[in-house]
Structure of Calcineurin-like phosphoesterase domain-containing protein:
Amino acid sequence: MPTYSNLNDVDYPDNTSDDTTPLSFTHNNDIPSYRLTRYVRPLIDYARNEWQANPKYASLPTTNTDDPSNSPRWVQMLGSIVTAPRFRRYVVVYMSVLVSCFVAWKFMISPRLEEHTAILRGLDPQTKEEVGWFGANALPRFDDIVQLRTLEPSLVPADTVSGSGSGEKRLIFIGDVHGCKVELGRLLEETSFNPDADHLIFTGDMINKGPDSLGVVELARQYSASCVRGNHEDRVLSLRHNMIAANTMGDEFLDDANLHRGQYTRERKLAREMSDEQAEWLDTCPVVLNVGQIKGMGQVVVVHAGLVPGVELDKQDPYSVMNMLTVDTDTHVPSASRKGTKWTKLFNKHQTLLSESLLETFENPESMLTTVIYGHDSKTSLALKTYTKGIDTACVRGGKLTALVVGTGGKQNLVQVKCNDHTKE
C-alpha cells in the first residue's frame, strides 16, 4: 500500500468510485499510519434520523394515489394547513371565544341593555301621560295605619363636627331583627351604642319567626327607638284587631279548629301574648319615616320594602311599601313578585336623572334627592347603592344582623354580627 508524506499528495479516485476507499499514509516524521475513510456522497445520505421513517412527515395523500402531482397545488396547500396541529389548536381557541361571546351577549349583556332601555322609557315623563303612572292620584286613607311620620330634627346628626367634639349624634339603622333579641344586644355592643347620643331606627319586621319577639319590642321601647311598619308587624297587628273585634282573643282553640285551619297560628299566638302597650307602640310605627336631610345622602327616608319613584311619600300605597320587590316599568305598579325590574334599579336611575337635571338649575341639587334605607329583601341581602341601602341580611335564618351607622357629616359605617339559625328551633 502506498505511503504519503503529506495529505495533499493523496491521489483521490474520482467520484464514480465505490462509497469508500481505504487509504493509509505515513507522516515524514515517522508518525504512525492512519487509516482514512473518504466519503464521496453527501453526508445527509448517511444520516439515519427518526424523521425519515415517521409517517407523520410523509407526503399528503391525494385523490390519485398513483400520481399525487395531478391535484391542484392550492388543494395540496389547503390540506397541509387543515391537517397542521397548530391550525387545529387555533380553530378550537377561536371557536371557544365565539361561543363565550355569544353566551355573554345572550344571557348577560342583552338582558341588561333591554332592562336599561325599559327603565329609561318607563321614566320618560311623556309615558306618564300615555299610560298613567301608579300613584298619580291620592290613595284612600287607612284609619288603623300611620302613613307618614317625620323624625324629630334634633335627632339628626349635624353636618359638621362641633368645636368640642363631644355629644355628637348618630343614627343607627337596624335591619330585620325577627325576634332575635340576643343578636340585637350583641349588635348594640359592637356599635358602642350610647342611649344619650345615638338613636335607633328599625326598618320593620322586628317581630315574628324568631325566639323573642316581645323582648325586641321591649328593648326598642326602652331606648325610645323609631321604627317603620313591616309586613310581619302588619300581619300580627291586623290579626290582633280582628280577634279583638270578634272577641276571640282568649280562645286559642279556634286557631287549630276548622275556623282558621291552622292558618297564621304563630302570628295569632304572638298577637295574644302581646300586651296592649306593646301593640299600641307597634301601631305607631309609620309606613314611611321621613328622617330629614343628612349630608351626602340628601333626604333620607326609611321604609320596610321599597318606594315607587316619582310618587309623593303620602301617596305611596301602604301595602306596596311593606311588600314590594319589583316595579312595572311602564305603569310603575309595584309587585311582591321577583319577576320584573327591581324597584331599586328604577329608583336609582330616577334619582340619577333627577340629579343631572337639577345640576343645571340648582347650586345644591343633593338636598332635593332622596336616599331610601330599607329591609325586607333578605334574598338579595346587603345591597348598598347610591340612593338605596338594603340592610336585611337574613339574621333569623343564620345570616347576619346589620346596622348602618350614620354620624356627623353623613359619615357611614357598617356593623354586623353573626346570627344563629332559628328556623331549626
User: Anything to note?
Assistant: The first strand starts at residue 22 and ends at 25. The two ends are 111 Å apart (CA to CA).
